[in-house]
Structures are given as C-alpha cells and as structure tokens.
Design a protein that fits this description.
single chain; 404 residues; alpha+beta; 4 domains; four-stranded mixed sheet; 13 helices; endonuclease; hydrolase; nuclease; LlaJI family restriction endonuclease; endonuclease activity
C-alpha cells in the first residue's frame, strides 16, 4: 500500500504545467492546479475525485485526452477514465456482476414454467366425450445460458482488476484479485455487444458499455502501466470556473468590435475582443479577466499580468462605459492562491493585492484601475457551480476595497 499524499503535487512542482493524473514508468503522479491546498490523508481522495470531476466536466473544452508532450506534438491518451470509473463504482455498490435473471424460450423440451406457458403459448383444444381439454405442444422453458453468464462474470472480474490497477486509488486502497480474460478478446466483446442489445436496465447498459470500452483498447496499452488524464492548459478550466461562478450568460454585448475598411476589396472582416466574464451586481458592472498566473504562489511581481493585459482591460472598460453611461464599471484580474499557505500571508477566500493602470492616463475612472484579486483555488473548485449571491457580494466588496 502506497502513501497517496506522497504522489500528489501542486504549484507546478514537476515543472511542466500538467494538471491531472498520470503514471510514468509505474510512477503515479496526481498534479493539482496552482494554489490548491491538498487535504490530509483522511480526505485526500475527496480532493482527487473533485479534480477528476472538474476535468471530466470540461473535457470537451480543454480536449483533456489530447495532451502536449515535450516536443509539442499532439498525442492521444487511450486511458478510458469514464469506463474505469463506472466499472469501479458498480463493483463497490454490487460486487462482481453476476447474472441472476432467468431467460425463457419457446421449446418442446426443457424445464417448463407453466405460468409463463399459459400466458404466452396458445394451446390446442381437444374434445373427448363432449368435454374440451387444452393440450400444449410447446412450452416456455428455461434457457440454458450458464456458460455465457459465467463468461460475462469472468470478463467483469478482468475489467474490475484492470480498472482498479489504473484508477482504483481514487476510491480505495483495496486491490481486487487479478483475473485473465476467459476467452479470446474479440469473442468477449461480441458477448458484451449481445448483452447491450438485450438489456434494458440503464445501470447494466452503462456497465457493459464500460467493460466493452476497456476491452477495445489496444493490447499493448492494456499491458502497460503508463497512463495520462489531464491537461497542460488548465488556464482554460480556470477561466470557465470563474465565468460559471460569477458571470452572466449573454456577455457578447460587452465585446468591443473592430473591423478593416479595405480600399481594394469588398470584404470588411470584423473582430471582437472578448473579456473572460462579465459580472453584474447591484447597479455596477465588473469585467473579470481570469488569469491563471502564479503571483499568489510566488509573491513575485513579475508573475502578475503584463501591460498587454492591462491595456486590454482598459479598452473593455471604455467600451462598457460607453454602453452603460449610468453604471459604474470595474475591472478585475482574478488569480489563484492558497489561503492557508502563501508568501503574502493572506488568509481570506478573496484578497485584494492592489491595482494596475496606465501611467499615461488620468486614471480617474474606476475601470482605469484594474483590481488584482487572489482567489483560493480549492474554494473555487468546490463552489464554482453554486452561483451564490453571497460570493458575488464578497467579490464586489473586495474589488471596491481599493479606492482611487
């Protein structure tokens, strides 16, 4: 049994920006995002499940199975995490899959179920001495499927061990016994397809499909202990979580637009700048730029957003102010940090660390001074999908804390 916490890393300790779960040369690495406060041994699996659930939620956005290696080539991970997760969860709830349902067929021989026969089969009516009697020539008899059912159970045992060996540490330290496939892999897939076509129970359909997905992996991948699930681009997830926690849906009206007016062409391409998120609270507008930068971890000023980002925020503010002349406009950078462990000695969920502006401007308007806000990474990951008015109020309070 290994110490799970010893396999956990955060704040880019491995120097390659990967966030997720991977095994390299049988060395398990669980890489949390910048600012995540890893729990003690008792609760660490809750942290890992939260990380996995967020990566699964945003897998279409971040293409979480399309990862960049050191040569900047796109590689594809064949690690079927969802299939492993489904097989493990079924096992923990029900144990190994065992078929206990009886199937019947229409036949002249076999173990007869008279109740089903009377309901489904039409008898022949015979008359003798003016008395009618019913004669059945075919019956509903129990279908002999012992061998096939035993094979499905054996396939399940193989898949359970395969799932636990790659992903079981998320759920438990338990490791089930290892089983080999009972027969040729292609025939096992064929049996599972038959089960899928004849099963109407949703839980079982999910299980059979997950077992099939495990077997559909290449043999050389199944034999390997290396796997990878995650992203080198967690900044996209950070942006989406900030937007879901604070943002409005129809933010396009706040996108400043530009266009080309060409002398020798009828084409006039237009472009729009797109702020990450727009928060409305009270009669004020907050333009949020989610920055997955490490200032809250390092405390080094060079890890703050650069002049390009600052100028872009000022433009957003100017455009919003032109649209909403009667509303106050605020600009905000939101960056990760760990409120329990950081070099700035800050301990609240949200912390205002100062503001940035352009030296060439008068900076008399609120939006010209972009507020730098640190947000506790773990708190955001635990609460981003709850859309709390109290959280909006807390951010607004922190943003307005620094006066011009």
């Amino acid at each position: 049994m290994f110490n799970l916490k010893e396999r956990c890393f955060t704040d880019n300790e491995l120097n390659d920006n990967f966030v997720g779960i991977r095994s390299i040369n049988n060395d398990l690495q669980i890489c949390f995002p910048l600012g995540f406060d890893i729990s003690d041994d008792k609760n660490i699996r809750v942290d890992v499940k939260k990380l996995v659930s967020i990566l699964l939620e945003y897998n279409k956005t971040i293409v979480c199975e399309n990862l960049l290696n050191n040569k900047n080539e796109i590689i594809r991970s064949n690690f079927p995490l969802i299939a492993y997760k489904n097989v493990i969860e079924y096992f923990l709830s029900h144990g190994y899959y065992i078929e206990n349902k009886s199937y019947y067929e229409n036949n002249a021989k076999g173990r007869i179920n008279f109740s089903k026969t009377m309901k489904k089969n039409r008898p022949i009516i015979q008359t003798f001495n003016n008395k009618n009697s019913f004669v059945y020539t075919r019956f509903q008899v129990k279908k002999e499927m012992i061998n096939e059912n035993e094979l499905i159970t054996a396939i399940n045992k193989y898949c359970v061990h395969e799932a636990f060996s790659k992903f079981g540490f998320v759920f438990s330290s338990f490791m089930p016994s290892k089983f080999n496939l009972p027969t040729d892999k292609n025939y096992c897939i064929y049996l599972l397809e038959n089960k899928l076509n004849n099963t109407f129970n949703d839980d079982k359909k999910i299980l059979f499909q997950s077992m099939k997905n495990i077997l559909l992996q290449d043999d050389n991948i199944l034999d390997k202990t290396d796997f990878k699930f995650g992203t080198y681009h967690f900044y996209v997830v950070w942006e989406r979580m900030i937007d879901k926690a604070f943002g409005i849906k129809n933010k396009e009206v706040y996108f400043p637009k530009t266009k080309w007016n060409l002398r020798r062409s009828n084409q006039n391409p237009d472009y729009s700048l797109q702020p990450d998120s727009i928060m409305l609270f009270g009669d004020k507008i907050y333009i949020l730029d989610a920055k997955y930068y490490k200032y809250g971890i390092s405390g080094v000023a060079s890890d703050l957003p650069s002049s390009t980002s600052i100028i872009k925020q000022i433009v957003y503010g100017e455009y919003a102010a032109k649209r909403e002349t009667k509303k106050e406009i605020y600009n905000v950078f939101l960056m990760p940090f760990n409120r329990f462990n950081n070099p700035l000695k800050l301990g609240n969920i949200l912390e205002n660390i100062g503001f940035a502006n352009g030296e060439w401007r008068d900076n008399l308007k609120q939006y010209e001074n972009i507020q730098g806000i640190l947000m506790d990474t773990k708190f955001l990951m635990q609460n981003y999908n709850k859309k709390s008015n109290d959280l909006l109020k807390l951010l607004a309070k922190n943003v307005e804390e620094t006066k011009i």
